[in-house]
Design goal:
globular, alpha/beta, 202 residues
Length: 202
């Protein structure tokens, strides 16, 4: 437990990659329970985790909130902006709530794999909720700077799989397929926020 206390006082270990900041459209994946403690944050701004308290992350947690907790998505976004100011600056932000997908953590064969494991990707794409969960993508505008935040419980499976699947589609729809002479701004970038801090604990 001691190392957790030390961790609270640290500086971010890594800056957000420049390629990501240069891009007009960035897609990220993260976890509701741990997006405030990644290699890109200082671990001190835990507004959402504190707000969530001992509650469980529910199915469609933001999309279909419980009546007594209508502000979860707003508090998540506030905290996300506090923790990732560079990433959010000047961007239209779209939250894609991936908690409606079946959670591979319940399948022992998939639990230790990440979201781009073929079986997880297949279950996401074939989900009856796929279109409704990804509906916010319809509002992306090619002439604006966009940030798409895919979020699930721990940022390992569902948000990773969904974000990975979005990348090529968003690229095609907004800017056309990536070509040799593509500019950095019109190349969609993907960043899995939990990768460096939480994937190694699996």
């Amino acid at each position: 437990h001691h190392c957790y206390v030390v961790r609270r006082q640290r500086q971010p270990i890594l800056p957000i990659p420049q390629m990501v900041l240069d891009s007009n459209t960035v897609i990220v994946s993260c976890g509701m329970t741990n997006f405030e403690s990644t290699v890109y944050t200082d671990g001190r701004q835990l507004k959402f985790r504190t707000h969530l308290g001992d509650r469980k992350v529910e199915v469609d947690h933001f999309r279909n909130p419980k009546q007594d907790h209508p502000n979860d998505e707003k508090i998540f976004l506030d905290s996300f902006k506090d923790n990732y100011p560079e990433l959010c600056q000047g961007r239209d932000i779209y939250i894609v709530d991936c908690t409606g997908f079946e959670n591979p953590e319940h399948d022992p064969r998939l639990r230790s794999h990440l979201g781009y494991h073929p079986t997880t990707l297949k279950s996401i794409v074939e989900s009856p909720k796929f279109a409704i969960i990804n509906k916010p993508l319809r509002n992306l505008k090619p002439h604006r700077k966009n940030l798409v935040i895919n979020v699930c419980k721990s940022g390992r499976h569902r948000s990773v799989g969904n974000a990975t699947g979005q990348k090529a589609v968003v690229q095609d729809q907004l800017y056309g397929p990536v070509s040799a002479n593509q500019k950095p701004e019109t190349t969609v970038q993907l960043l899995h926020l939990q990768a460096d801090s939480h994937w190694d604990r699996m």
